[in-house]
Amino acid sequence: MNGLILTLLLSSSITESSAFRLSERAPSFDVLGQSSKRQSAGFESDTNGTEFLWTIEDTYDSSNFFDQFTFFDQGDPTHGQVNFLNQTAAFANGLAYVASDNTIVMKGDNTTWLASGAIRDSVRVQSIKAYNTSLIILDLNSAPWGCGVWPAFWTCGPDWPEYGEIDILEGVHDNEHNQITWHTSPGCNLTPSSNYTGTLSGNLDCDTAVDDNSGCAIIDWSRASYGNYFNSQGGGVYAMKWDDQGISVWSFYRSAVPVDITSGGSPDPSGWGLPAAQLSPTGCDPLKFFMNQSIIFDITFCGDWAGNSYATTTCPGTCANQIMDPANFVNASWSINSLKVYSKHVITGTTNGARHSLDGALGPTHFALAMLCIVAFALTV
């Protein structure tokens, strides 16, 4: 049987139609053989019937992260009490490094006492590469939090806000919930829906010119989404899916991360349950309002959001006074295992009037892996 399978995989005579006749007999398996709740051919399917896989495009980890991200060292656009360091200074001051366990660490200064009115050193980095539609999966052990702290993991296009901004993970102070927000040019609106588990917050209009650029936001009230409790559970995973079907965000505790993420195969967001937040194409064209998105991590302090909301928290004193004591920022740190970006590869279907097939959409390696699962099962039944 092994010889027959190998012959089939190497043979150029396997046509699209014969491959999918075989696949009709197989259960739902992804390209690495894990069982999943996919369509009959083993792939995800868009509402128009187009079948596809999410395949890895880029992996950022301890081996390459700081080579693929640039350090922003200008004034904070959100008016935080922060001094963003360049790469040389960030490494020299221990605010950016790869730890002995191969985690990527970026942090705010937690050793220096400051005079009243001084600003605290921190880090903001942006990916060199930009993306147009993607599935972004961040695996981290901890995210920054604490009184006066305002971290974010987000994407942004050039010529802001013309090409949009997606705030995947953002919180302030000692909150225990994430706020997912979109900021756009005029014409994009958040649609109230039962297709996500979070709660609408404020405006439905995502236009940056509305309400002092508050954007359109959804709050994820799960304690899996932000803060001390998330970190105490060993962190977890945040995922953002952006395609023509909209923009969705999920978060998972370490113990609840889907197996198709941890296995290293092709992730299947359709099996993850409802997202915490979703921007539907009903009210906002995700391909028109979001383009050329770079990935950004930052940690700022006080500023437009954290500074203005400080009085509504249980944090002591004022935000300006909080900045002075370095002990207040021992938790203002990112600890990242990996950041992966997947792209959508059409298997078969009609998009923009063109017919796509498995062998035309995937490279030889992906095609062989996909066919191995399909053919192997077909020959055993």
From TrEMBL:
Q: Which CDD domains does the entry mention?
A: GH16_fungal_Lam16A_glucanase
List UniProt keywords, sorted A-Z.
Hydrolase, Signal
Q: Which InterPro entries match?
A: Beta-glucanase-like, ConA-like_dom_sf, Glycosyl_Hydrlase_16
GO MF: hydrolase activity, hydrolyzing O-glycosyl compounds
Report the record's Gene Ontology biological process terms: glucan catabolic process
PANTHER family cross-referenced by the UniProt entry: GLYCOSIDASE C21B10.07-RELATED (PTHR10963:SF24), GLYCOSYL HYDROLASE-RELATED (PTHR10963)
Q: What is this protein called?
A: Glycoside hydrolase family 16 protein
Source species? Athelia psychrophila
